[in-house]
Amino acid sequence: MNLLVPTATDDGEFHGPSLEEFFPGPLLFEGTAFEINRIMLVRFVAVIALLLVFWLGTRRMRVVPGRFQSLVEMGLDVVRVNIAEDLLGKKDGKRFLPILTTIFFMVLFMNITGIIPGLNIAGTSVVGVPLVLAIVSYVTFIYAGIKKSPANFFKNALFPPGVPLPVYLIVTPIELISTFVIRPVTLTLRLLMNMIVGHLLLVLFFSATSFFLFTMGGWWSILGVGSLAMGFVFTLFEILVAVLQAYVFALLTAVYIQLAVAEEH
Asked: What is the mean pLDDT of residues 27-42?
């Protein structure tokens, strides 16, 4: 199966991107529990690349790091300093650093496949990975709260102290939905929708470029040059979105953990 984005069709008409691209046919093991399609293959590539980067960056650690080791350490410091320690402090930051680092780099590498030629779709553009990561974040939040205060975590979350008794009829359902339902849903949808929209826009611009240049020709080629330029601009923007979404996902996970281990719990 061709891993490249679709271009102009053979019937001479332009067809824009559709959601069908996120549900490709099987490539391997069709009809089995281990069926692999294009997006699953992209996810495997992203995970292998992630493991390879960290293996190469940490296999020969030096006191005076080389360029590649420095790059890896810089990425790790972004999570350690700007997310973990900044929100959770030294003690809890170190405690939850592995999960925050894993979330950040997994989201980053899954996102960045959306602009890599030959892959051209983010591993997070189908709900599976965003949902799993949101569940991991949610479970970590619950674990942190119960570990901090086994007896009072759920009580303080659902029945905030200092609220008049009758008001709990309104406050408790709101807290239940906002704290224990909305958080994993918003984490999932924020990441998923950003990657879907980014992919559709890139496919739209580059498909339009192919259509204007090779199907229409003539003066239409001017529009093809314009759509090509916009495609490159949005590719750069998609790189920014990929990094930003990884940062936001890890940051919100740290925020939820910080709320769970707050003193009032």
From this structure: 90
Instruction: Give the other-Cβ count within 10 Å of 206's Cβ.
Output: 23
DSSP the chain: ---SPP---TTS------GGGGSPPEEESTTSTT-EEHHHHHHHHHHHHHHHHHHHHHTT--SS--HHHHHHHHHHHHHIIIIIIHHHHHHHHHHHHHHHHHHHHHHHHHHHGGGSTTT-S-TTSSTHHHHHHHHHHHHHHHHHHHHH-TTTHHHHHHS-TT--GGGHHHHHHHHHHIIIIIHHHHHHHHHHHHHHHHHHHHHHHHHHHHIIIIII-TTHHHHHHHHHHHHHHHHHHHHHHHHHHHHHHHHHHHHHHHHHTSTT-
Whole-structure pTM value:
0.89
User: Cα separation of 6 and 247, whole Å?
Assistant: 30
Question: Among residues 103, 256, 115, which one has the least CA distance to residue 183?
Answer: 256
Tell me the two tokens of residue 11.
């019937």
Helix axes 128-148, 183-210, angle to 10 degrees: 160
> What does the pLDDT look like over 156-209, one tens digit per residue?
888 888 888 888 899 999 999 998 999 999 999 999 999 999 999 999 999 888
Q: For residue 263, what pLDDT is reported?
A: 57
Residue linked to tokens 């769970």: 260
Q: In terms of Cα–Cα distance, which of 185, 183, 201, 186 is closest to 241? A: 201
Residue with tokens 């790189």: 239
Alpha-carbon distance of 208 to 229, in angstroms, equals 11
Pair 39, 50: CB distance under 8 Å:
no
Q: What per-residue confidence (pLDDT) applies to 149?
A: 87
Residue with tokens 């918003």: 186
